[in-house]
Each structure stands twice: as structure tokens, then as C-alpha cells.
Automatic annotation (TrEMBL):
CDD domains on file: CAP_ED
Name of the protein in its database record: Cyclic nucleotide-binding domain-containing protein
PANTHER family named in the record: CYCLIC NUCLEOTIDE-BINDING DOMAIN CONTAINING PROTEIN (PTHR23011), CYCLIC NUCLEOTIDE-BINDING DOMAIN-CONTAINING PROTEIN (PTHR23011:SF41)
Superkingdom of origin organism: Eukaryota
UniProt lineage: Eukaryota, Metazoa, Ecdysozoa, Arthropoda, Hexapoda
Species: Bactrocera dorsalis
PROSITE patterns: CNMP_BINDING_3
Residues of the Cyclic nucleotide-binding domain: 89-180
InterPro entries: cNMP-bd_dom, cNMP-bd_dom_sf, RmlC-like_jellyroll
């Protein structure tokens, strides 16, 4: 019977809403995964900056790192090696190399917008980031403006090394590192 109604034109109005509802239900069922992901995305906040870390080192450890290596006692050297063993920054380094590196370790606090390493300079040190963010830029020549422009390469954060490649390969610094 529905076919006779459709042919005569009476049943078209009745069928349209039901067909539309079925299509809507079907598309909702198919896209259910995407709809649930959309709700999760709305609740997710994208961090624009890294969370602040209160402090990794104690004041005693900072005092040891502030001393010149000639003035450190044997117990201070030993505690420094133990400290380096527990920091994730130094986890990639073998224990023997960590022990040899410990006398050369120093702790410095840098303010914002301070150049740590400048492009084109000779390498003298390697830096390890304990807290904070470092912007890594490269100077490139802009022929339109006839001057060098700094281009942001990436952001470096806690647990990363700075300037180790240039130091190991004994070449001039390829990038500028600035505290954020």
C-alpha cells in the first residue's frame, strides 16, 4: 500500500521526515567516534607555555655547583656525581663520563632574554637546561631587506642539551640560544 500512496503523491510528505530521521540516525551512528573525540577536544586545553618547575636542586646542591672546582672537597665532588646520576638531563651519559664531567659542572641562573650562545662564536661550553625555556634562532640573510633576520627554529626545554654538536665537531656556533 505505501507504494500506491507514493505514486499518487499523498505519501511523499509522510516518508520524507522518516527518511530524513533514518539518515540522521545512521550518520550519527557512523560518526559517533568523531563526535566523542570532538567533546574530548573541547575539554582539552592546549598549553601555550611549559609549566613552571619550583626547583630541581636544593640550596646545598646549588652552593656546591657555584663553587670553583679547585675549591670543592672530595665529599662535595662525590655528592655532585650522585646528583648528576639522579638528574634526567644526564641520564644519557655513561657513569664514567658523568664522573669525569662533574668537576666541570657549574650552576648559573639566567634572566629572561639573555643570549646564552651566539651564532658564529667559537664553542667553549655545553649547557644543560634544568628549568625554563630556551628559544633557538638562526640568522638568515634577507635579500629584500638587505639585512640578517632571526628565524625561530624551535623551543628547547628542561632535560635538553645546548651546543653539544658544535662543541664536539669543533665548528662555529650554528644557532643562537636565548633564554625566554
Amino acid at each position: 500500500m505505501p507504494n500506491k500512496e507514493i505514486r499518487s503523491g499523498k505519501g511523499k510528505d509522510k516518508l520524507k521526515p522518516s527518511i530524513r530521521f533514518k539518515q540522521l540516525a545512521l550518520s550519527a551512528l557512523i560518526n559517533q567516534q568523531w563526535l566523542s573525540d570532538l567533546i574530548d577536544q573541547q575539554r582539552t586545553k592546549i598549553p601555550l607555555s611549559r609549566p613552571k618547575v619550583a626547583g630541581i636542586l636544593t640550596n646545598n646542591e646549588k652552593n656546591i655547583l657555584h663553587k670553583y672546582r679547585e675549591l670543592r672537597s672530595d665529599s662535595e665532588r662525590e655528592s655532585l656525581v650522585n646528583l648528576m646520576a639522579h638528574l634526567t638531563v644526564f641520564s644519557q651519559i655513561p657513569p664514567k663520563l658523568r664522573a669525569r664531567l662533574a668537576p666541570y659542572a657549574y650552576f648559573i641562573i639566567l634572566g629572561p632574554k639573555r643570549k646564552i650562545i651566539e651564532q658564529g662564536r667559537e664553542p667553549a661550553t655545553v649547557y644543560f637546561v634544568l628549568t625554563g625555556d630556551i628559544t633557538v634562532t638562526t640568522k638568515i640573510w634577507n635579500s629584500v631587506k638587505n639585512k640578517y633576520i632571526e628565524r625561530l627554529e624551535y623551543l628547547s626545554g628542561p632535560g635538553e642539551w645546548l651546543g653539544e654538536i658544535d662543541f664536539l665537531e669543533n665548528q662555529k656556533r650554528q644557532q643562537t640560544f636565548t633564554s625566554k
